[in-house]
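Q: Given only this backbone (393 positions), what sequence would you predict?
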């Protein structure tokens, strides 16, 4: 039994279902540019509608300070309407009591009402119990399908659960199941690959993972700080000298951390003639480390082939600029191939990681790719996410 209730535990027919989604979708000139997060919640929406619920969708967009027309949900309403066609989707251009109540009264069985940006109410981020009480009058039950907002203890993710019967939506369920199988009850050996530019932003992640995984690969510019901590001269590379002591202590405490043994360097990103492969001890003073080298890549792939589970967050090189994307692409493609044979369970998350997988053409080939950003990181840090905890039975 899951530690939280799901849609399997409730009859939603004719009920007013308050559904918290994360439709914080990227916009450009008033148009949605990436529908992934919306597509991921369609199974929950379709199931609720098919069972005759009256669905009231709550979501935030951006981080408005009060009412901000630039962060109105109108473009999201348009995208939701198209995605749910022919199901009727109404948009309530307000998140204030009386207008919302009128809109809900008009809502028919099997249809959807999207309310305006919940963060237009300052009480939302304050996790205000009075606002939660007001919201509780809008629905008969509450469903949270916004794992990517579950690291926020806000009125629509936390306080509301104390007032209405609360359930996890299908996406929330899938995220929790996938993340649980990657870190809480993984099949071992378990490898984690953590890349990115700064140790400072990922330190809590590294500290938590180092205690829990069998192999921890450090990549990206972050690895330069660790290399420097071992006495390697990283030349003109990006690194954080102030964190070398911390990095050294981590390396001493956790021998399962894997650093590059060779790297791809360049003196000038624009000048291909300056690109070279170097052993880590041979990086020139004027050279920047921009990717892992072929020896490192092969060693990681060999270890990966022995593993049963892989957790991935962050590219191991400057993946936006070829040829410095090679290490990251090679590793993702190997992981994808192992996943497809059934040998490896792969879970990835974070904005850069999704972009990398898409670039490598393997977005569909991992076992699970989380659309969460901050929530995924906090989960990797080992934190209890308030929006998940609040769903506890
Ligand atoms: C996200 O995009 O990660 C979520 O929607 C949470 O947004 P927030 O960081 O503004 O709370």
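A: Predicted residues:
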């Amino acid at each position: 039994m899951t530690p939280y209730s799901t849609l399997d535990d409730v009859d939603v027919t004719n009920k007013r279902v308050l559904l918290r989604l994360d439709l914080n979708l990227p916009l450009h000139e008033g148009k949605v540019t990436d529908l992934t997060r919306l597509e991921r919640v369609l199974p929950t929406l379709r199931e609720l509608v098919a069972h005759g619920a009256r669905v009231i969708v709550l979501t935030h967009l951006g981080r408005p300070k009060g009412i901000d027309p630039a962060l109105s949900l109108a473009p999201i309403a348009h995208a939701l309407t198209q995605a749910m066609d022919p199901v009727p989707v109404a948009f309530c251009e307000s998140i204030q009591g009386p207008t919302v109540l009128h809109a809900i009264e008009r809502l028919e069985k099997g249809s959807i009402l999207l309310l305006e940006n919940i963060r237009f109410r300052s009480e939302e981020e304050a996790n205000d119990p009075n606002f939660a009480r007001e919201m509780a009058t809008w629905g008969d039950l509450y469903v949270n399908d916004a794992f990517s907002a579950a690291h926020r203890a806000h009125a629509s993710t936390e306080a509301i659960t104390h007032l209405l019967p609360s359930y996890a939506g299908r996406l929330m369920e899938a995220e929790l199941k996938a993340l649980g199988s990657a870190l809480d009850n993984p099949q071992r050996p378990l490898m984690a690959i953590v890349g990115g530019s700064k140790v400072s932003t990922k330190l809590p992640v590294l500290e938590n993972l180092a205690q829990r995984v069998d192999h921890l690969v450090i990549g990206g510019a972050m690895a330069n700080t660790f290399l420097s901590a071992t006495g390697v001269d990283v030349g003109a590379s990006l690194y954080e000298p102030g964190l070398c002591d911390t990095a050294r202590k981590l390396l001493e405490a956790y021998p399962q951390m894997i650093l590059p043994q060779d790297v791809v360097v360049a003196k000038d990103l624009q000048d291909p003639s300056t690109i070279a492969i170097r052993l880590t001890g041979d990086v020139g003073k004027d050279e920047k480390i921009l990717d892992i080298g072929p020896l490192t890549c092969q060693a990681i792939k060999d270890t990966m082939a022995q593993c049963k589970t892989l957790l991935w967050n962050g590219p191991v090189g400057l993946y936006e600029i070829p040829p410095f994307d090679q290490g990251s692409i090679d590793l993702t493609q190997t992981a994808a191939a192992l996943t497809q044979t059934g040998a490896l369970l792969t879970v990835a998350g974070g904005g850069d990681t999704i972009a990398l997988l898409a670039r490598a053409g393997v977005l569909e080939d991992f076992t699970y790719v989380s659309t969460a950003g901050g929530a995924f990181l906090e989960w990797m840090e080992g934190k209890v996410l308030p929006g998940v905890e609040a769903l506890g039975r």
